[in-house]
Amino acid sequence: MTGKDLLSIAVRIESAGFSYYSKLAGKTTGSLKSLFEELAQQEREHMKRFEELMRKYEADENFATWQNEEVLGYAEQYAKAFIFPELEKEEQEVPETIVAALRRAIEVEKDSIIYYNEIKSVVPDSKAVEEILREEKEHLRKLSEKLLSEDISMFSEGSMI
Q1: Alpha carbons 22 and 40: distance in angstroms, whole number
Q2: β-sheet bridge partners, residue 160
Q3: How confident is the model over 106-118, as pLDDT tens digits?
Q4: Beta bridge mates, 97
Q5: Is residue 160 assigned to a domain?
Q6: Does residue 82 lie in a domain region?
Q7: How far apart are CA 39 and CA 42, in angstroms?
Q8: What is the CATH number of the domain that holds 60?
Q9: Number of domains making up the chain
């Protein structure tokens, strides 16, 4: 796995996030709909920024073929064990309950944060990855707040979307 491969995974993560939040926005109303629309738009922007990084360093042979067994091995195994299974779930239908949908979103945001923390040491422009990381942490905060909010607390675990 190369530095370019790591960014390809990041693009896939953000693309799946955009799709998931768009689906949720289509099934919800009110403040939940607004939150999911906002998150979908931000995931699309993150995807574009990772694609720009890939294009920027495409000609850099060191980056395209860069190998650090410790970082790459860890990132690759983490992606296979935690991120890809979640992406496959996201590509299917969204959960049927609000609480389950929020919990899945929180898990994916946490996994993204862990993954991006690892790859920022590989990317020559780590500031771009750090900015996305800050935004992902903000997503996690917003989703966690929504899960704990009074809006959601009136819904039982089985409340349908």
Answers
A1: 6
A2: 97
A3: 998 999 999 999 8
A4: 160
A5: no
A6: yes
A7: 5
A8: 1.20.1260.10
A9: 1
137 lies in some domain:
yes
Closest CA to 93 of 35, 19, 144: 19
Q: Residue 30 domain-assigned?
A: yes
30 φψ region: left (φ > 0), alpha (ψ -120 to 50), beta (else): left
pLDDT one-digit tens code per residue, 98-150 = 999 999 999 989 999 999 998 887 787 889 999 999 999 999 999 999 999 86
Location of structure tokens 């991006």: 116
The 10s digit of each residue's pLDDT in 51-99 is: 999 888 777 766 655 555 566 667 777 777 777 676 666 556 778 889 9
83 burial (CB, 10 Å; 0-12 / 13-18 / 19+) is buried
Domain around 71: 3-153
Per-residue buried b or exposed e for 138-153, using 16+ beta carbons within 10 Å of the residue's own CB: ebbebbbebbeeeebe
The length of the chain is 161
